[in-house]
Design brief:
single chain; mainly alpha; about 0% strand
Length: about 230
């Protein structure tokens, strides 16, 4: 490489902003999409960590109240038919159906146990859907971001070769900027995909554990009610 080409290469700005501004429109769009996907993924991750912590705290607080020995009717009257917490909603769904299953003379309507369990199952399903909401986006980002970044890289390299052909110059000053811009797209794809995959697995596992606790509580509550039905 001659000294003039080396001097030209050294004067090129390789900062991320400069690489973005020099990139073709297609590569710019790819970079913007990946950056937005990455920020959106982190927003979901942070929101889910906060939501899961709140869900665990609510479940622990309600579990203490449920097993405190306080009569279930009094506990239900305290939290009301439309509480905020997921555990409370499952309990309220069961208690509402329990009360509706009594006739005016105090006798139980046939099939009360099955209706109570279905009511709690519906509440659990809604709670589980809320826990998993947004995780599909993380899975999508984790699976397609590397390919989107690779597309940007391929397109950027194509444009770089076209510039080489037009200029009839293969010096570093001509080749390096285009290749660098193209590789940034791949880097952004990996930057978006890696955290999305890691936290998708983590959050999915946490959601399954929380949902499992809801189901365990519903089973215990159903067992308590079944004893009263049989007594």
């Amino acid at each position: 490489m001659d000294q003039s080409s080396l001097a030209m290469a050294q004067e090129i700005d390789f900062s991320l902003l400069a690489l973005f501004l020099r990139a073709s429109l297609t590569v710019k769009l790819v970079m913007i999409i990946l950056v937005v996907a990455s920020f959106w993924s982190w927003a979901i991750i942070i929101r889910k960590f906060i939501a899961y912590r709140a869900a665990r705290s609510e479940a622990e607080a309600f579990d203490r109240a449920f097993w405190s020995g306080e009569p279930l009717d009094e506990l239900f009257d305290q939290i009301g038919p439309a509480p905020d917490g997921a555990s409370q909603k499952i309990f309220a769904a069961g208690m509402l159906e329990w009360r509706r299953s009594h006739r005016q003379d105090g006798a139980l309507i046939t099939g009360a146990q099955a209706r109570i369990e279905r009511s709690m199952d519906v509440a659990i399903q809604k709670a589980t859907e809320n826990l998993n909401y947004g995780l599909n986006f993380l899975a999508t980002v984790g699976s397609i971001s590397p390919f989107v970044g690779l597309f940007g890289t391929v397109w950027g390299i194509k444009v770089a070769f076209e510039e080489i052909a037009i200029s009839q110059n293969t010096s570093l000053a001509v080749v390096a900027p285009g290749i660098s811009e193209a590789l940034v797209a791949t880097a952004l794809g990996l930057l978006a995909a890696i955290p999305a995959v890691i936290f998708y697995n983590k959050l999915s596992s946490d959601a399954d554990r929380i949902a499992g606790n809801y189901e365990a509580f519903a089973d215990e509550f159903s067992t308590i009610l079944s004893r009263q039905l049989d007594s």
